[in-house]
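Dear support,

I submitted the protein below through the web form. The confirmation email said the job was done, but the results page showed an empty box. After a refresh the structure appeared. I'm attaching both so you can tell me whether what I see now is the final result or a partial one.
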Amino acid sequence: MYLIYIDESGDTGLKLSDPQQPVFLMAALAMEKRQWFDIEREFLTVVKDFNGGEIPDDFELHAMDMVSRRRSFKSFSKAQTIEFRDAIFKLTEKYFSNKIFYISIDKKRFGQFCLERYGEGVRIQPYIMALPFICMNVDCFLKKNRKHGILIFDEKREGVADAEQALKVLRLDRNSSLNTSSLIEKGFFVDSQKSYPLQIIDMIAYYLRKFEEFKLGFQVSPVHRQVFKSIEEFTTNIKDDIQGFTDYSNFIEKYFLRYKK
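What the results page shows now:
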């Protein structure tokens, strides 16, 4: 059994022209359930090492807080933040090499696709387009390993109803060209502060987004670029071409076009 943790970065909803976040990225981390305690122990060891041997009661690894050195990271120096990031990257590569899958969506290009495909009256969030890609890819991974998996999301995200509807259709509608057979139950939505794998994939998704923005020619901090070679080696990029969007459009049109023209 695999626990599949899913998070996104650069989610601005229907606002597709944000120059500060030109890319939407969704990532999934596949963890064998037997590894949970080992990962928790090593994650908390890293946290303690950077907090005087203690685990702060309200600690949560959130990428934006870490890079801005606020909340759980407000007492960190820049050097400590980089060291902490690298320690989490080392842990991630140890346990999740080739078990992290992601799709990135160029929001501007996606907006143009939606305009051409649906017209001006219909608007779709990148999250809804990305989720079937992720689910289908994870399902293929599970089938290859002859395992089943359960999806776990951050309960704080918006659009929970749409996500649950997508998972239901993918699992149950055998008339659809898109369906999954190795993802069981519905998605579970948990508090990220209590889920260390969700915190890890939050950080990885952030740096993957920066990596994809860099490839598109956007300016990215040299500090962020330090991890690009490593992150490219242990993650898998799902192909995100426009033809792929077109292939998924029937699914989107059938189940999610509740938006009024």
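Response: this is the final, complete result; the empty box was a page-load delay. Residues 115 and 173 are 28 Å apart (CA to CA).
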